[in-house]
């Protein structure tokens, strides 16, 4: 019932912000539909763009190891499909359809 008043994306963003403040890994939602509900969710980096392309091609997970400030990081992305009726209503997609991805960046120690 709470899904109709608070979209899952809003809850996820709150969780991601809390994780960042506590010093955990970063995460963000990105769109894979080409019509994001929020323009800030467009894939921006080369990694994000490649992850969306891989997920559109059928992968459920994509990763790479890279460097940030000379230190290794793991970048990973997982699919975000339509999983609930309420998701389908708001996004105009049927259940199981790819909506986007969650991208993560974790420092490798």
Structure explained in plain terms:
The chain is an alpha+beta fold and 109 residues long. It contains three helices and four strands; from the N terminus they run αβαββαβ. It has helices spanning 8-21, 46-56, 85-91; strands at residues 26-31, 61-68, 71-81, 98-107. It has a four-stranded antiparallel sheet with strand order 1-4-3-2. The protein is globular, with a radius of gyration of 14 Å. The relative contact order is 0.21.
Query: Number of DSSP helices?
Result: 3
Helix content: 25-40%
Low-pLDDT residue spans:
none
Instruction: Note the overall shape.
Output: globular
Quaternary status: single chain
Provide the spatial order of strands within the biggest beta sheet.
1-4-3-2
Find the structural class using helix and strand composition: alpha+beta
From the alpha-carbon coordinates, what is the Rg to the nearest angstrom? 14 Å
| Portion in strands | 25-35%
Biggest β-sheet strands, sense, barrel: 4 strands, antiparallel
**What is the first-to-last residue Cα distance?**
41 Å
Mean pLDDT: 84
